[in-house]
């Protein structure tokens, strides 16, 4: 029976020792956890900033693409009209030549 009481006492002392160690370690870890939390929050803010910048860049890219497409269309239209000029000049020349005869 004495062995049972000694075993219970050893178990109780072990549990108390474990509890004390857990509390001490928790006190040591708390500052590190707080620092980790603050670093994580700062990183999340930076990520949000990057997302916002990426969205703005995407919008600017779309505007630039639209502008390029519009200018391309204007250039193609102008080129087509310039290609028609020689024919129009020929027609005017012929019409002028026919009227002068």
Automatic annotation (TrEMBL):
Keyword Oxidoreductase (UniProt): no
Residue runs in coiled coils: 33-67
Protein name: DUF948 domain-containing protein
Record field: transmembrane: 6-23
Keyword set, alphabetical order: Coiled coil, Membrane, Transmembrane, Transmembrane helix
Species whose genome carries this gene: Bacillus inaquosorum KCTC 13429
InterPro entries reported in the protein's UniProt record: UPF0478
Pfam families with a match to the protein in the record: DUF948 (PF06103)
Lineage, uppermost ranks: Bacteria, Bacillati, Bacillota, Bacilli, Bacillales
Statement: the UniProt record of this protein carries the keyword Coiled coil: yes
């Amino acid at each position: 029976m004495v062995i049972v009481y000694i075993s219970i006492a050893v178990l109780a002392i072990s549990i108390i020792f474990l509890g004390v160690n857990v509390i001490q370690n928790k006190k040591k870890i708390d500052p590190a956890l707080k620092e980790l939390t603050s670093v994580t929050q700062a990183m999340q803010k930076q990520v949000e900033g990057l997302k916002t910048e990426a969205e703005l860049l995407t919008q600017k890219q779309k505007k630039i693409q639209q502008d390029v497409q519009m200018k391309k269309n204007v250039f193609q239209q102008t080129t087509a009209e310039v290609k028609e000029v020689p024919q129009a000049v020929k027609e005017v020349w012929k019409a002028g030549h026919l009227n002068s005869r």
